[in-house]
Design a protein that fits this description.
single chain; 412 residues; alpha/beta; globular
Length: 412
C-alpha cells in the first residue's frame, strides 16, 4: 500500500502567534464542555456582556437587506464611504474624500491587506510592545520583520520617540501606532504623537494608526487622531464599528488614507488589487456605517462618569490595586488593564501556565502578558466588560488565587 506524507502547516506560520485565542482559550472550552462556568476576561467582545448595538444601526441594516444580496464595489458601498470621509472632515481633514476610504471585514482583515500590499521579504515594521498581536503576526505572515519598540510602564505605558527612532533602519517601511492602546489602556499625549509623526516624516515611513477604540476614553484623556498630525506623512487610519458601536460580529471596519497620496499611487493600486481579489466586504454590515457615524453617539454615555464602561474600568483598577503585590496603571482608554505582578512576591517563570492554573482552579480566564509580545512573565491582560458585581466576584477569585500562590511560595 502506498504511503503518503502528512499534510503540515506552511512554514510561513512558524513564528506567527495569536495566543489570545490559543491554547488557553482551548482549555477554557474544554472546561466548559465538562460543565464549568468560565468567567471570560480575555477577549474584548462586548456582546456577551450585554452591550447592545444602537437600534439605528440595526434598523438601517434590516431596511437595506433586500438590496444587499449582491457584491458591492470592492472598496465598499458609496454612502458608507462618504460617511467615513465626512467623519474625518469633521476632525479637520477637510480634503478627505470618498476615494480615500476603503471598507473591510473588520480592522483585522484590513491590517493584513495593508501589510500585504506594502511589505517585501525582510522589510521591517515598528510595532509597540506590548502590542495587539495581530500586528506582529500579520507582519511575519506577509514576509516582514516586526521590530518592537518598548512602551514604558513607568511612564503611563507611553512610547519613547527616541527609542523608536533608534530602531529605524534602511529596511523600515512603517510605524504602527495603537491609540488608545490595547492591551495597556494608555492614551498617548499630543507631544508624543507629534514626535512619532516627525520620525515618519524624516525617514519616509508610513504611519499605520490603529484607532479602533478612539471614542473610548476616560476622564481628561485627549484622543488625537494621527491623520491630523502632519500633511507630510502618508497615514493609514484604521477604525470601525466593532467596539464603539458594539457590533464586533458584524465585521465592519474601514481605513482612511491621508497625507501625500501622490507618492503612494503604486502602493494604493496594489491595495485596490487585493480589495478586488476578495470581492468586497460584508455588504449588510456596510449599511450600518452611515447610521453609526451620524446622530447620537451612545458610547459617550457609557464612558462618562456614571456610565457603565467608566464604572467598570475604574472598579477593576481599584480591585486589582487592592491585591498585595499587584501594580496597575488606570486605563485612560479602551477596555483593558495590564497589571504587573511583583516578581519578588510572585516569581512566575511561565505566565501562560500561570494563567492556565488560574483558569483551572478558579474558572477565570485572562490573557498572559507575553501573548502581547511583552518581554517578561509578570503581566496579564484583564478585560473590564463584565458588570461591576461580576468584576467584583472575578477579582475576588483572582485575589484568592494569588493569596494561595503567595502561601505556596512562602512554604517553599
Amino acid at each position: 500500500m502506498q504511503e503518503f506524507s502528512e499534510f503540515v502547516q506552511s512554514p510561513k506560520l512558524a513564528d506567527v502567534r495569536y495566543d489570545v485565542r490559543g491554547p488557553i482559550a482551548r482549555e477554557a472550552s474544554r472546561l466548559e464542555r465538562a460543565g464549568h462556568r468560565i468567567t471570560r476576561l480575555n477577549i474584548g467582545n462586548p456582546a456577551p456582556f450585554g452591550f447592545e448595538a444602537p437600534d439605528s444601526i440595526l434598523q438601517d441594516m434590516i431596511a437595506q437587506l433586500p438590496t444587499a444580496q449582491g457584491y458591492s464595489d470592492s472598496r465598499g458601498i458609496y454612502p458608507a464611504r462618504v460617511a467615513v470621509a465626512q467623519y474625518y472632515q469633521s476632525k479637520g481633514m477637510v480634503e478627505a474624500d470618498v476615494d480615500d476610504v476603503f471598507l473591510g471585514n473588520g480592522v483585522s482583515e484590513l491590517i493584513s491587506m495593508v501589510l500585504q500590499a506594502l511589505l517585501a521579504p525582510g522589510d521591517e515594521v515598528l510595532i509597540p510592545s506590548p502590542d495587539y498581536p495581530l500586528w506582529t503576526g500579520a507582519t511575519k505572515l506577509c514576509g516582514g520583520t516586526p521590530v518592537h519598540y518598548v512602551c514604558d510602564e513607568q511612564n503611563n505605558w507611553w512610547p519613547d520617540p527616541e527609542e523608536i527612532e533608534s530602531k529605524v533602519t534602511d529596511r523600515t517601511k512603517a510605524l504602527v501606532l495603537i491609540n488608545p492602546n490595547n492591551p495597556t489602556g494608555a492614551v498617548y499625549p499630543r507631544e508624543i504623537l507629534e514626535a512619532m509623526a516627525d520620525i515618519c516624516a524624516r525617514h519616509n515611513l508610513m504611519l499605520l494608526a490603529d484607532e479602533i477604540y478612539e471614542k473610548i476614553t476616560y476622564d481628561d484623556a485627549e484622543m488625537v487622531n494621527a491623520c491630523t498630525l502632519s500633511e507630510d506623512v502618508l497615514t493609514i487610519t484604521f477604525s470601525g464599528l466593532s467596539k464603539i458601536w458594539r457590533v464586533a460580529g458584524f465585521r465592519s471596519g474601514w481605513i482612511y488614507v491621508s497625507g501625500p497620496k501622490h507618492r503612494a499611487r503604486n502602493y494604493l493600486e496594489g491595495l485596490e488589487l487585493l480589495m478586488n481579489m476578495r470581492m468586497c466586504a460584508n455588504v449588510p454590515a456596510q449599511h450600518g456605517i452611515q447610521a453609526a457615524l451620524g446622530g447620537h453617539q451612545s458610547i459617550e454615555d457609557l464612558v462618562a462618569p456614571g456610565g457603565r464602561l467608566y464604572e467598570q474600568v475604574h472598579a477593576a483598577h481599584q480591585l486589582l490595586s487592592d491585591i498585595e503585590g499587584v501594580q496597575v496603571h488606570p486605563a485612560q482608554g479602551a477596555l483593558y488593564l495590564f497589571p504587573r505582578l511583583d516578581p519578588e512576591i510572585y516569581p512566575i517563570e511561565d505566565d501562560e501556565q500561570f494563567v492556565i492554573e488560574l483558569l483551572r482552579q478558579k474558572q477565570i480566564l485572562v490573557s498572559h502578558g507575553r501573548a502581547f509580545n511583552w518581554e517578561d512573565s509578570q503581566h496579564f491582560r484583564l478585560v473590564a466588560l463584565p458588570a461591576v458585581d461580576e468584576l467584583e466576584a472575578a477579582l475576588e477569585g483572582i485575589a484568592d488565587y494569588l493569596a494561595e500562590y503567595r502561601d505556596a511560595v512562602a512554604r517553599g
